[in-house]
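#onboarding

Welcome to the new folks! Below is a worked example of what a typical request in this channel looks like: someone posts a single protein sequence, and someone else replies with the predicted structure as tokens. Don't worry about understanding the tokens yet, we'll cover that in week two.

Example request:
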Amino acid sequence: MFFVRSAEQIAAPCCGGPLGIVGSRPRVWYKSSGEKAKLVIRRLYCEACGKIHHELPDLLVPYKRYDAESIEAVLSASNRTDVAADESTLLRWKCWFLAWVVYAAGCLQAIAIRRGLSVVSPSTEPQSALHLFGRLVGDAAGWLSRAVRPLANSNLWVTDPFCLSVRTPSG
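Example response:
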């Protein structure tokens, strides 16, 4: 069992209010080998708005049981076979990513603009979802974690995948 404790003093993602610790809860984490580990993550209470937030380490994607490295490996390589997950899980990750990537790219651009960073529009249309993301977070290892953290910390994480429009190749 691993205890997650951040060294950073962070504000609530929804309103920027101060966070206090109100407890912890267990969280299951599957490594790419299939090994199951338990994390104990802190529950944080926003004193300004009264909402509860969970402190997730960078290695996890919200609402996913496998680590970000495993998910990223499957999304980056179409024939990845060294992640110990069912084919249906791998397919779900790919479908989730195709639905999420356009929303996430728009959110990352909005965050960059809010922080006064320059956002350069590409001269050509991106050839794939990964190409679109590569412009924003790079294509080096860890790109999924680099994309997830700003969205989660800006209270822009969508918990319901059905809120996102999904385009199929035929339509």
